Design the sequence.
């Protein structure tokens, strides 16, 4: 893990397209600004973990399909 020190209004660059700005520091809270292309999804860790857990649960679940009943004796030509 790379650990960097930054002050308010300083940035960290990730590649050429993503920058993280230090917006505000108050006590043990830091406000960050993330500038990234729209194709890059940015989440807080707890939200990311929740999404992963929901996706895993959905992938492991058994789909429930309603029972479909067809009357094969009926014809669209019957009038």
Sequence:
């Amino acid at each position: 893990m790379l650990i960097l020190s930054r002050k308010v209004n300083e940035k960290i660059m990730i590649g050429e397209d993503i920058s993280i700005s230090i917006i505000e520091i108050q006590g043990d809270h830091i406000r960050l600004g993330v500038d990234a292309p729209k194709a890059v999804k940015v989440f807080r860790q707890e939200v990311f973990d929740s999404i992963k857990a929901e996706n895993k649960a959905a992938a492991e679940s058994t789909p429930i399909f309603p029972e479909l009943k067809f009357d094969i004796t009926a014809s669209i030509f019957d009038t």
